[in-house]
Amino acid sequence: MNSEQLLHIADLYESPVYVYDSEKIINQYNRLKNAFSNVNNLRLNYAVKALSNISVLKLFKTLNSGLDTVSIQEVQLGLKAGFEPESIIFTPNGVSLEEIEAVAALGVQINIDNLSILEQFGTKHPNIPVCIRINPHVMAGGNTNISVGHIDSKFGISIHQIPLLLRIVENTGMTINGIHMHTGSDILDIDVFLYASEILFETAKNFKNLDFIDFGSGFKVPYKSGDIETNIEELGEKLSARFNTFCENYGKELTLAFEPGKFLVSEAGVFLAKVNVVKQTTSTVFAQVDSGFNHLIRPMLYGSQHEIINISNPEGRERFYSVVGYICETDTFANNRRISEISEGDILCFKNAGAYCFTMASNYNSRYRPAEVLIHNGEAHLIRKRETFEDIIKNQIEIELNVEEPNVSVLIPD
Ligand SMILES: *Cc1c(COP(=O)(O)O)cnc(C)c1O
Hints:
This protein is 30% helix and 23% strand. The protein has 13 helices and 18 strands. The structure holds pyridoxal-5'-phosphate.
């Protein structure tokens, strides 16, 4: 993806537009696979919620990836993209028993993360093997927004509840075929991750019919220069060795599973937006683009720093800008950022826009969600049309509202 190609795409499909590079996705997938080449049975289940376009799912299908899904709709998307039900895992949180039953009926591996549903499901369907999501209570990262392993997290079954869990399994006669954790979105420190893994191994010993151990995700990718990136190669070496030892002691060759989202697609995506207005105030120069948190909410929601490049004037003199949107709300993408000189009409390129960007887009301000383009073998393919006014209105129902004329006479005193 070079600037020239991106400018051409912005010209052809107009702005704002998301652009993804299949080569980067493939490289990241293979990097992860190679890091765990010492494990005989490795399963990478791409986390659909990061970027759920059906053409992207099809790309993962060609890589022989599985899918990690969190809603029945994501499961349906995966099936439509051609995935076999057996290569999909359903890892929801707080969904109804009915939804879990419906997904299980499709032949998808289900993963249950609370004791209430586990007991109900096991009682009704003792013959369907389930995976359980464990909360090892290990904080990865340190930002409570994205650490889901801590004591008050809503995710997973606490390791302190294993005795109760075992009783449910025994009473219902159900089979636990997998054990899972997903500690959060940032593995900064491999030792913390390995520590959580030890807890998972320890817990796994309680279950005699395991087929797989799923270590979730949380691989960090750099957003700005100087950011720490998870050392996948080192993690692969250490965890693979530990996993193989566990399998020897367990007496069965299990599958090691991961379900990465961000690691696979974040860096593969950029978001292109056009500068509508350059506005100088007493203290700040604002560059206002034809977008806002309706298209890219991560900077406002998580404080994520997406690098911004002015691809229309890459060699220009650098100046400080606050890049904001056109939404009637504070929608700051970047504060006081050094960017090469911006003129109205320039195209700004937001990096790391592959994961949790389009999938979090909305119609706020009755704006259209952007188009999506996938570059594959050097060629740009439109994989989602920009919405139209028809999309905005299609589910709305206009009703007849008869408002009675106010009776003016009562307002006039006698
Ligand atoms: C969101 C999610 C993932 C993917 O997390 P990333 O940080 O994007 O890799 C994996 N597993 C589960 C259960 C998730 O909810």
